[in-house]
Amino acid sequence: MKVILTITRYLVGILFIFSGLIKANDPLGLSYKMQEFFEVWGLHSLNDFTLAFSVLMIAFEIIAGVAVIIGWQMRLFSWLLLLLIIFFTFLTGYALFSGKIKTCGCFGDCIPLTADQSFIKDLLLLGGILLLFVNRHGITTSMNSRNSLLILALTTFFSFGLQWYVLNYLPILDCLPYKKGARISEQMKIPAGAIPDSTVITFVYNKAGQELEFTADQFPDDFDESVYSFVRRYDKLIRKGNAEPKIKDFVLLAPNGTDTTDAILAQSGEMHWLFIQALNENDKKSILDELNQLASTVSSNGRPVYIITPIAEEVETFLTAAKTPVLVFRSDAVAVKTAARYPATLYRLIDGVVVEKKAVR
Q1: Which residues, other chains included, contact 109 with Cβ-Cβ below 8 Å and sequence gap of 6+?
Q2: Among 109, 128, 175, 238, which is least packed by CB within 10 angstroms?
Q3: Are 58 and 163 in contact (CB under 8 A)?
């Protein structure tokens, strides 16, 4: 039994550390996923706290994983892990059975899992943690308290330090479709060999106050328009495919409302895109300094600089007041949040391919 408990401890601990490290690379991604859950549940007031929740949850995953491996304070951590995995299993179960959330973000964007894969993973983890919980009184560590506390202190420092770094300097491992080397126009296309959704046209008719559904080849033998009253028709999903582009809803609207996405993406040579999520007071000076530097070293050579933002009017007012003329495109807020993991993020592209990106701070 001792061998089984040791193996289980290591497996559970390693999985929690791995999961935490993957998410620590992009805590904003997890906070956006939390917002998705809160939006579905109508808990809009919690949206402002999702980043704090994300940072704390990620740090706890890593710290708890290390604590389980070294066997430190298992009476405490077995309870905490059990509560956490029950919560995770509820989330993944909700995503799977409600169909309202496609992915749970368990391993971030680097290892996307479907809802059913996430749920199965959490069920297996729940079984392992239950085993540790039942036997928690018999699990002890061979490491002395001083070394255990030192390891956990270093783990805590590393967990929060890594997240501070990526929140200020962009993720170390870029797993987004806007990563370096990606051709944006290609990421917006459906992948070759993708399987489209399988649907069937379904008719809804009312008969004696009851709504009945049937497909074109399943009309009832007694069908008569004097008896059956047409209500509506829709495409019923039979099998979910994977025919979705990696980048969706990325549109560049000019100030006059014209969709210029294809024209901008088709431009050859070098260009710069400055994504602006929000105009924070702390970032305004950095944005102006960056734009002035680009104006002197880039725009003068005919290499265009564009601003892409969901708050076009606010940005245009800000630039006009600062006497810094730059063409501003309006884009979807979700698309900008995906592309820019910092409130102001600068891209350098050559022939539509991302070659460099940095946080403007």
Answers
A1: 26, 29, 175, 176
A2: 238
A3: yes
